[in-house]
Amino acid sequence: MRVIFLPTFWTIVLDCIMWTAFYFSIAFLCTRIPMEYLAKDRWLFRTRPWEQQGEIYHRLFGVRYWKKKLPSGGKIFGGFDMRSIASYEVPYLERWIIETRRSELCHWILILPSVLFFLWNPPEVGWGMIVYAILFNLPMIITQRHNRPRLQALLESVRSGAIPAGQPAKAPADAAETAVQAGRRSQ
Question: How far is CA 23 from CA 56, 141, 153, 159, 181, in A?
């Protein structure tokens, strides 16, 4: 329900300011979530059977083709760089999995403020803001839900000795795929 009425120009300015403020403040707050909270495999972050270890996201959306083109915002506030796997050491892979949870949670939260835009926009623009928020954040959520089970399989392969710990010998996607395939054969 619209309660603030501004000229169109100032409404657009307010929209831009508010999205910027929401994105930076929520992203900053998400970097402050304790790792201990994100280390647990909570309900939101669990891989569901229908996700097929994240493979469903590649089959439906071709995530492997475009995920490297997405911005990595974790480094903005001193967070974790998720552009490529730098090590197969267990603590590093555990941290990477934690950061996929942080990123996913942050992008779910970033959708929520879209409903506030109804306060100063006409209803059709308010609905447009909801669509924008979903379309902008969904690729990042899909990427984290695709990557996490693959990273978990990689971590288990490193822990079991099937893949040696240390620096990656193969491209990260290849090693993760090898770990996912090995996990499927053992089931």
Answer: 28, 15, 32, 37, 37
